Amino acid sequence: MRKVLTLAFVCAIAITAFSAPHAYAKKCKGSIGNRIWEDHNQDGIQQPDEPGIPNVRVWLYQGNKHYETWTDENGYYKFKTICEGSYVVTVKTEDVGKRYQSYDPDGRYDNRTRVWIDGDHDKHTKADFAYIYGYAPNTGAGLYAAMGAAGAAGLTTLFALRRRTKRTDA
Ligand SMILES: [Ca+2]
Ligand SMILES: [Ca+2]
């Protein structure tokens, strides 16, 4: 009888020891990444010759909680032990230098994207962002930068003249 009780006691301890931490850890095994790179041909695809941008801060927001990490020498970053939920990944734009954004996962060029982590082992690797020097066709700011201040002033004058002409015609 004593042997049976001892065995039952050992089993109870074993079940407690193994099941409790496992149940807790199971909820936060997701991860979010993946890369910030220079999209030289601006096709939104990472070609082998397109380098990553290192030392860029990336923030992960969930409500008022926020986490920070940095891209490595190849432009990769990863937030680990992520629990189920909705997050916003944001790139610290000061760290990409004088580059313009040329790719954003959600199509809106605002240096951030929303990510949902569904399950216990959800590895999200699509939070990629691209930046390039010079003309970025997807943002008006890139066009002005490429033209330079004088060109931008010329364009503004041209638009003003066109507006005035339209008003005169009407
Ligand atoms: Ca590319
Ligand atoms: Ca976006």
Explain briefly what this protein structure is:
With 170 residues, this protein is of the alpha+beta class. It has helices at residues 2-25, 140-169, and strands at residues 30-32, 36-37, 57-62, 65-70, 79-82, 85-91, 100-103, 112-117, 123-124, 129-132.
Question: Characteristics of this structure?
Answer:
170 residues; alpha+beta; 2 domains; four-stranded antiparallel sheet; three-stranded mixed sheet; 32% helix; elongated
List the helices and strands and how they pair.
Elements lengths: L1 H24 L4 E3 L3 E2 L19 E6 L2 E6 L8 E4 L2 E7 L8 E4 L8 E6 L5 E2 L4 E4 L7 H30 L1
Parallel strand pairs: 1-9, 2-10
Antiparallel strand pairs: 1-5, 3-4, 3-6, 6-8, 7-10
Bound molecules: calcium ion (2 copies).
Structure characterization notes:
The protein is an alpha+beta fold and 170 residues long. The chain has 2 domains: 106 residues, Immunoglobulin-like, CATH 2.60.40.10; 25 residues, no CATH class. 32% of the residues lie in helices and 26% in strands. The protein contains 2 helices and 10 strands. Strands 4-3-6-8 form a 4-stranded antiparallel β-sheet, with no helix packed on it. A 3-stranded mixed β-sheet has the order 5-1-9, with no helix packed on it. A 3-stranded mixed β-sheet has the order 2-10-7, with no helix packed on it. Strand 3 and strand 4 form a beta hairpin. The C terminus is likely disordered. One calcium ion binds next to loops.
